[in-house]
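task queued by scheduler; priority normal; single chain, no ligands, no partner chains; default sampling; output format set to structure tokens
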Amino acid sequence: MAKLDTAPTANDRAMTLDRGLQVLKLLAASEQDLSVAEIARAAGLHRQAVYRLLGTLVDHALAVQSNPGRYRLGFGTLNLTGSLVPRLQDVIRPHMRALAEACRATAFFFVREGDEAVVVLLTPPQTTDVHLTFSQGARYPLNRGAGGVAILATREPGPLETDDVRDARRTGVAVTAGQLHRGAVGVAASLHAQPWMRLESSIGIATVSDGADIEEMKKAVLAAADAVNREFASYSRSERNPYGLTPEPSSGKAA
């Protein structure tokens, strides 16, 4: 008996790609995290098909499960947009530089990806030769280190909950010691997700714990986060470039 060829055809692969792109577009267009049922209904797909598509997108960091059963765009989509990462740097880097110099410590920008916090940007201080170093792109458990803890503190309590997360949720700033580097202390605050950049992220500093003025570091980090949030709030999504940073038009009369 002849053996049936069950390999996917070119048409099958094209259809799967088309459906995956539909799901990505739905996630990108929504200002809320979407459930499997909502995606299936909007895309006209069976739930099992949506589960499979989301599994592949999550594997490639193009989607992330934000809460049980709900999904949003993943950090990996930034790598597909070319101009967004440099533009993000343009917005965040000056505030990180000022924070690093004010605290004489390494400033960092973390982004959540699944149950990990990813180091996206680093700025060491220029006024001292002694500072902590990280690897850009390094990943850490989300509930270890100030950067991830600050992100977790914006979410409802869950399996990753720790005393540090509870403290950060109460005070608005995360403080950890010795979790990522022995003898180091980290301070971080979360950044507000925006419709054009629905990332869970944080900004903060890390330094050696000896002689660190934690209260002053907390004030500096909160001020930096507030400044970045205000600048983020002045940007909106553009129809021509939905992932670009486009200043909102002034609501007042032209001068």
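post-processing summary
- Residues 106 and 124 are 4 Å apart (CA to CA).
- Helices lie at 10-29, 36-43, 47-59, 84-103, 146-152, 163-171, 214-233.
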